[in-house]
Write a structure and sequence with these properties.
This is Pectinesterase inhibitor domain-containing protein. One of its GO terms (molecular function) is enzyme inhibitor activity. This protein is mainly α. It is about 80% helix and about 0% strand. The chain contains 6 helices and no strands.
Length: about 170
């Protein structure tokens, strides 16, 4: 009973803090944030901090893989040299996002909790580098900025969940 209560309070705290901040700061659409919340409810059945961190990192890894595949597809499909180069460079950033998340997963698996938050933060920095390649207000067929913001939302959850691990 106490474990269930602990889990519920922890997830509620994460959601209460990150959703309003993320929505306001990154202009995440409410449908997107509702989708993330539902996925967390469906997939994160773990009751401890390590399980929740593992779940959130897994969700971020899955989302990053999907977006990386899309970037590669857009790169192959476009004939516009300008977009082709932007997609190529952004794809390199996503390789680093994937690498950082895999390192976070390895650290989690080896109980080395001290650096996991830094690895998640490094993944977010790579997203920012990708986003800078497209600039604000630029119409882009793949909507990379929107996809980056969505992945950033997942990383915010992962960061919140892994931040608690350094206390263990």
């Amino acid at each position: 009973m106490a474990s269930y209560l602990h889990k519920t309070i922890f997830i509620a705290l994460i959601l209460a803090i990150t959703i309003p901040i993320s929505s306001a700061r990154y202009r995440i659409k409410s449908k997107t944030s509702n989708d993330v919340v539902q996925q967390l409810r469906d997939l994160c059945s773990e009751t401890d901090s390590v399980g929740i961190a593992d779940c959130t990192i897994s969700l971020a890894m899955q989302k990053a893989e999907v977006f990386s595949d899309e970037l590669n597809k857009w790169y192959k499909d476009t004939n516009d040299v300008r977009w082709k180069e932007k997609y190529r460079l952004c794809s390199k950033n996503y390789i680093e996002v994937d690498r950082n998340l895999k390192m976070a997963r390895r650290s989690l698996d080896s109980d080395d909790y001290r650096i996991i938050s830094d690895q998640v933060d490094d993944a977010r920095e790579e997203l920012d580098k990708c986003k800078c390649k497209f600039g604000p207000g630029l119409f882009e067929p793949g909507h990379v900025v929107d996809r980056n913001n969505e992945l950033r939302f997942y990383l915010i959850f992962a960061r919140a969940a892994t931040g608690r691990l350094s206390w263990l």
